[in-house]
Amino acid sequence: MHAMPPSPTPDLPLGPRFAIDRRLCEVGNRWGGRRAVGLFFATVSRLGDGVFWYALMLAIALIGGRRGVCAAAQMAITGLTALMLYRVLKRWTRRPRPFRSCPGVIARIPPLDEFSFPSGHTLQAVSFTIVALAWYPLLAGLLLPFTLLVAASRVILGLHYPSDVLAATLIGGGLGTLSLWLLSGVFA
Fold first, then answer.
1. Residue 6 — φ and ψ, nearest 5°?
2. Pick from 176, 6, 180: which is nearest to 81 by CA?
3. CA distance linking residue 42 with residue 48, whole number of Å
4. Which domains are present in the chain?
5. Nearest CA to 101 among 2, 1, 3, 13?
6. Whole-angstrom Cα distance, residue 124 to residue 50?
7. For residue range 83-116, what is the model confidence (pLDDT) as tens digits?
8. What DSSP element (H or E) covers 145?
9. Quick check: 139 and 132 in contact, CB under 8 A?
10. Which of 4, 115, 139, 159 has its CA nearest to residue 64?
11. Which has more confidence, 10 or 50?
12. Measured between alpha carbons, how far is residue 138 from residues 3, 77, 89, 135 in Å?
């Protein structure tokens, strides 16, 4: 496992209201320093990069007939929208990642981009899960735990603050719900 050293980026004056956010990040990241824990969450995070979701969309499309193709198409549209949205938000907020601004927090895997807010992995996971479960509720036993693990992995690996993950959960929930509302007639 590759650990990235903290960068010389100066700490942000976030004040006391972010102290719990920072502290939870430090505790989670320290726990991720255990070899087995770090490897497990690095694997979860890697699957959350897209591999798991693309495989799920493909399986749904191949196994589910027309309904599966519609579900996979809606997941893909929602995913592309999520990608554009979180990239815009990251460029706008420009929040440094915890390993760059918190002494003692180590990036346990290399980040995919420069900024922290919001967690793109979490935003994608939540929005994909909402859409997939609307089509196939029986997948809840697989998708809900995986989505929670993806969200946790981002903090444990030192790449996001808990508030990045929480905000991404809310944004992803809203996006997934909006997708169902806007596209329900298209894929009916």
1. -60, 145
2. 176
3. 10
4. 16-183 (1.10.606.20)
5. 13
6. 9
7. 999 999 999 988 888 888 888 888 888 888 889 8
8. helix 140-156
9. yes
10. 139
11. 50
12. 38, 22, 33, 9
